Backbone:
């Protein structure tokens, strides 16, 4: 396996690892990696917790795939996470059993935002983002969708029905939340205008 010329000059003993090997940290790391081809997965088979393989660097536990990427490619941007492009969301449903989480092949690792990483996986966020209609059957389109305070999508048609319920109207009047002529509270109307302004600027 060709792992390139970049590697640490610090021994495993200095890194808090075994003194018996006498290898550099870089060489020691690759002794536990199974790399059959340049394009295939390179699983690291040791120190695997509930999800990713880990390694101890200067007394700190770091993910093995991040170490491999930084050694063979370069620094990972601060605002980015490494996404395993070899991961198949429809097949890898249980994190602990996903074989791709052990892969340290830099060709299978892509720096992406946290949102992109979540949406590519088999996650709650990805499942919600894939929905095209609200629970009541209304379509999530530009005219019928607003952003909720928690960042999620909201259905305008459902919101209008909810806001006109007698119990909701009574509660808002009791708390000084007077509805505007559009049927929304002043805060909701301000939120809608801000959302439309962000969409227009995007």
Residues:
């Amino acid at each position: 396996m060709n792992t390139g010329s970049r590697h640490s000059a610090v021994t495993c003993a200095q890194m808090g690892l075994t003194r018996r090997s006498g290898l550099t940290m870089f060489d020691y790391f690759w002794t536990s990696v199974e790399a059959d081809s340049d394009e295939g997965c390179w699983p690291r088979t040791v120190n695997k917790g509930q999800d990713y393989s880990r390694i101890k660097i200067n007394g700190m536990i770091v993910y093995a795939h991040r170490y491999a990427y930084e050694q063979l490619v370069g620094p990972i941007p601060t605002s980015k996470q490494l996404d395993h492009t070899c991961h198949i969301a429809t097949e890898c449903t249980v994190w602990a059993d996903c074989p791709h989480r052990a892969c340290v092949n830099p060709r299978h690792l892509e720096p992406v935002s946290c949102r992109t990483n979540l949406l590519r996986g088999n996650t709650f966020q990805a499942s919600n983002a894939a929905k095209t209609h609200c629970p009541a059957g209304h379509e999530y389109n530009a005219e019928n969708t607003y952003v909720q305070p928690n960042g999620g999508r909201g259905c305008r048609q459902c919101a209008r029905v909810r806001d006109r319920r007698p119990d909701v109207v009574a509660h808002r009047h009791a708390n000084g939340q007077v509805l505007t002529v559009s049927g929304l509270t002043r805060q909701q109307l301000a939120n809608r205008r801000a959302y439309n302004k962000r969409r227009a600027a995007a």
User: Anything to note?
Assistant: Strands lie at 54-57, 60-63, 81-84, 109-112, 145-147, 153-155. The first strand starts at residue 54 and ends at 57. The helical segments are 25-30, 64-72, 114-120, 124-129, 156-163, 166-174, 186-201. The chain has two domains: 25-127, 131-201.
